[in-house]
Amino acid sequence: MKLPLRIPPTAMRSLLVSLLFLLPLLVTAQFQTHSASIHADGTLWAWGSNSKGELGDGTTFHRMLPVPVGLGMRWRSVSVGEEYTLAISQDGTLWAWGNNAQGQLGDGTQTMRITPVQIGTATWKSVSTGTYHSIGIRQDGTLWTWGNNSYGLLGDGTTTSRRSPVQIGTATWQSAEAGELYSVGVQTDGTLWTWGGNSTGQLGNGTQGTTNRLTPGQVGLATTWRSVNAGTYSIMALRQDGSLWAWGNNASGQLGDGTRMHRSLPVQIGAAFSWSVISACSNHTLAIRSDGTLWAWGDNTFGQLADGTRLMRTLPVQVGALSTWQSIVAGAYHSMGTRRDGSIWAWGYNGTGQVGSATLSMISQTAPIQTSPAVWQQVAAGIAHSVAIQQNGSLWAYGANNLGQLGDGTTTARSFPLQIGSSLSWATLSVGDHHAVALRSDGTLWTWGYNGTGQLGDATTTTRLIPQQRGTATWRNASAGTDHTLAIRSDGTLWGWGGNGSGQLGDGTTITRTSPTLISATTDWLSVRAGKTHSVAIRRDGTLWIWGSNIFGQLGDGTTTARLQPVQLGTATTWQHVSPGYRSTTAVQQDGSLWAWGNNANGQLGDGTSTQRLMPTRIGSALWQQVETGETHTLGLQRDGTLWGWGSNSNGQLGDGTLAQRLAPVPAGSSATTWQNVSAGLYHSGAIQGNGTLWGWGDDSDTQLGIPTSSAEPLLIYSPAGPLPVQPAAQLTQISLSVYPTITAQGYLTYVSSGFAPSSGVTLEVINWHGQRVRVLPMTSAQGQVAVADLASGWYLLRLVTDQHRLMTKFYKP
Prior knowledge:
Layout: E1 22-25, E2 30-38, E3 44-48, E4 63-69, E5 75-80, E6 84-89, E7 94-98, E8 113-118, E9 124-129, E10 133-138, E11 143-147, E12 162-167, E13 173-178, E14 182-187, E15 192-198, E16 209-218, E17 225-230, E18 234-239, E19 244-248, E20 263-268, E21 275-280, E22 284-289, E23 294-298, E24 313-318, E25 325-330, E26 334-339, E27 344-349, E28 364-370, E29 376-381, E30 385-390, E31 395-399, E32 414-419, E33 426-431, E34 435-440, E35 445-449, E36 464-469, E37 475-480, E38 484-489, E39 494-498, E40 513-520, E41 525-530, E42 534-539, E43 544-548, E44 563-568, E45 575-580, E46 584-589, E47 594-598, E48 613-618, E49 624-629, E50 633-638, E51 643-647, E52 662-668, E53 675-680, E54 684-689, E55 694-698, E56 711-717, E57 736-739, E58 748-754, E59 763-768, E60 773-778, E61 783-787, E62 794-801, E63 806-813
């Protein structure tokens, strides 16, 4: 039974192409369930039950959390049946995996597949899975079926099962769906056709019981059918005028006609002509109207109607007051949907993880909860913490918090992103060593964290654990340095406060200021950046200005003399972006050229040497859009969207998969070309891709990555509501996984775990820095060995996976 999501391909940043559902395993009266989704980057993820390899991850272990399927492939659509899955790749080819006892995979065999196998060479437009049979439409509009054929549900005039796709007639079709023991489709002329079993009148021909059809038969004479959705034994269909019609099984009120009577002919549901999307499964139905409102009816035992109750509904009831729903999928006992902002929501039964959250195991959720990755717009890295803003304007922080630098009202470290307050108006932010400054959309300025030198600007040196507004003025730019803060007001004037021992405030003195102090009354300041003990700014005319400490030539004026007030650097009027680091500076001109100067002991200037530079030096010939300098390493984005790093790399902070120092820019972040925002901390880094996903790499000793492992390559970071959550380290204090520091001469890695009893449901996985599993093996004892002799030299993750937890530790293969 395919539950399609009819979403325009450009409708959402994070596109959920298909979410699939819970199915009853009648033999044991328990539930088998798995789900799948396709992300905006074309990757396919699956989770839930996996006894027949239906997840396609190469194992038969259940997954409470999503795992990637078909690494390296890009997918267009996916459909989940009972214990098997079909998907179409972006090149139009059809792939299948899972249970194949009835030939439902279509590969000519009855062999179970635990990884995707290609079905022929044809190109396909759509595919739908049933219990044991499948239906697909090729690009030429022809209809093909395969698998179990009892009751004639393949439509080829026989009851002979087929292990490979067979064409049904010569008509052209616009959509087709596989039900439990029947099939339904709409031809391109708008006529609707059904065939197969008819136990509850699902064929819509006025009869029910044993009057099965072995070939497609038309339902009525109407030629205005727009789309159809097959439930287990009921059908929901939309006409072109927006009216909704239903027939078949109605034992739980899933038809929505106010009764629980089966219908053998189509009946209109209500008087509305505004229905746009429909999804039905075994006992309940979901629908979206053209105004974006969500409606539900039928069985509600597990809260699958999302109305906050467990009451059966025989008429459509509106779910909440929102009018932003984009698509929905009804499972047997759980449901999922997407909103127009790209967020994914789920509700109902979660017995085997079909909702996609380890924290909701066995919970019946009666209201929608968000399960999609957040969409981020900015990230900033401090010494050992990170702060980020989501696209919806919410503020999040994670990592070290000993000085209140996270702003959550505590000094407790956070191992995963935690929302700070409830405001959705955060616009920009900047993070110093232990404090932060941020602007809201109304131009107000807020600070929090350590305040030993007055860097918060509240006229005190008192540390603040939550963001607090500073004055009533409005601002347009602000930057946090190590112990000082600089900002530009909306009138274009320049202000500073905090530590000033090296003249980094630029007010002509070395006096600490605990309140905002006017640095320059000139009203043409465009942007300002605060480094450790020096500062830089760009005016509207494109000139670059510098001041503060200059011991290592970080001001770039050819000297090592400190400047207590802003002075222009050179005569160029084409500066576009500048970043002051610990003792060095990098900048980009309007033509995309990259320049650097100052300390270069770790190669952070990127000129191929470790030679200090007292004046701006051109770095290579590539064209750049952003560059960010950390303590001893630098990250940059080229105009083609690629990510690069250079300088110190002792903790993998360059993101190139190694720990090797780099004296010149090297590619980081694999081959992605969609990076749009990057930040360099002390020993860790963060960045955001064009699809709004948040990534981190480098040192994680203070949980500053938001994931429980250090990494030499960018790893995806999800908020707790994400579909790929990693269990917070704080919840795993009694559980551990470690490896011996060396690999044996025979090429074995020895591991030790504690805190739980190994069982058949526990696996060990070896994952390379590209996220690919290169080893998957059952864990049978708390201590053992993993063969790694044949692995290439480099860093790897050893991951222990249970239904409740994922523990990871890293090791290096020489």
